[in-house]
Amino acid sequence: MRFGHEGRVRFGRVAAGADGAAFVEVLSGDPVRTDAGVTGELVPVSTVRLLAPVAPGKIVAVGRNYADHIAEMGMGEPTIPRLFLKPPSAVTGPGAEIRYPAQSREVEYEAELAVVIGRRARNVNTADALAYVFGYTCANDVTARDIQRADGQPSWAKAFDTFCPLGPWIVPGLDPTNLGIRSTVNGAPRQGANTGMMLTPVADLIAYITAALTLEPGDVVLTGTPSGVGPLKPGDTVSVSIDGIGTLENPVISGVE
Question: DSSP 3-state assignment of 67?
Fold first, then answer.
């Protein structure tokens, strides 16, 4: 996890004590990019502010990666992965506000599995791809749908500040081909699927991406959203939950500052 504590950004691991209470084992640095070790310092989870668990150098995202979402959008199934880039400035953390921009009247949530890269990856084979993954976290690929329709491509509609919530933490060692993924708005279920429904699985995505560009430690791959996407408005609270990871929750506010 990445967290704010006593005016500093720090890194740690969530653990449970003998009494079941959660605490943080503070690490000496960023474990995604360095060989960080445990410092011996323990901090109660209740005293820290969760941040996005990684600050990516780049975010590579795939669209139309679930057949049911393609159907609900009335689009054609791509013959190759449909990739786009999302700026690092879009990243925000658990509990942070998603700002509804004045330029849009149709902002939507998209629950996604996020892959955090742990090793420099270039021309990686599918069979070896998951060895380059540090771990997995929840993502919300927030989208100004009206701008996407008008523009004809996804990048700008998904690039606004706060349009990439990540969290609550990174979990290593999961099987990315069999994770339940869900979203809610104000507690009401909206999406419910399994990552096994992806048209292009995580390992194949990494192989495809790294044939063209290098993924560095800390980079994030967003893997697409299942059906059930829908609108957000200021005052809503949206959550993304993935089995084995947890829940990422964010309130929505007006973007007018």
Answer: helix
Structure token digits, residue 61: 């995202």
pLDDT tens-digit profile of 195-218?
999 999 999 999 999 999 999 999
Closest CA to 30 of 133, 134, 136: 134
| CB 252, CB 98: distance < 8 Å | yes
**256 pLDDT exceeds 70?**
no
Q: Evaluate if residue 257 carries a pLDDT over 60.
A: no
Same structural domain, 163 and 243 = yes
Whether residue 150 sits in one domain with residue 242? yes
Strands 133-140, 164-171: pairing kind: antiparallel
pLDDT at 18: 75
61-94 pLDDT, tens digit each: 999 999 999 999 999 999 999 999 999 999 999 9
169, amino acid identity: W
The domain tally of the chain equals 2
Burial of 22 (0-12, 13-18, 19+ CB in 10 A): exposed
Residue 216: closest CA among 132, 112, 140: 132
Do 111 and 163 share a domain, yes or no? yes
* Amino acid identity, position 80: I
Distant-in-sequence, close-in-space partners of 162: CB < 8 Å, separation ≥ 6:
90, 92, 96, 97, 98, 99, 142
Q: Do 16 and 86 belong to one domain?
A: no
Task: For residue range 20-35, list pLDDT tens digits in order.
Answer: 788 999 999 999 999 9
